[in-house]
Amino acid sequence: MIEEYYNNWLKHRTVLHELLDQVGPEHVFFKPWSEGFSLGELAVHIVSSTDMFLATVKNGQFASPGTPRDFQTMDEVREIVQEFTHKSKRDFSVLKEADLNNEIDIFGYMAPGKYWIESLIDHEIHHKGQLFVYARMTGAEKVPFFKQLPSRAVNDAAAD
User: What's 106's DSSP letter?
Assistant: First the structure.
């Protein structure tokens, strides 16, 4: 079950990296409205929230989100996303099936770890969708599919 969650999450996280590669350096602080996250803040929010959910499930109790380092450029945002991606991969690798069944309280809501893992994936998908809109609004023309696609089927007759 953990491997399925990991693979599903990774198909989305891979696209987050690809999407951020389409954003020009001048758009790191782009906001579609004054009270919203900037583009860079939203990307960092995604990865730090995933880190919080994973640490919570791994530890069996709520773990406050870590404070990511400050950034001024899109390259720094991409570095932060990469660092958190590596950490999340490590955290997924040490999860145990029992962690998925542990009841965990997050802000007064009790649910098993698997609920919180599903929530971290849903949260990432939700905000990544927002980033697609941000990227388009800043002029990105070639954005990736929302989820990493499987390998293309090879037509044996065409290969001859």
Answer: E
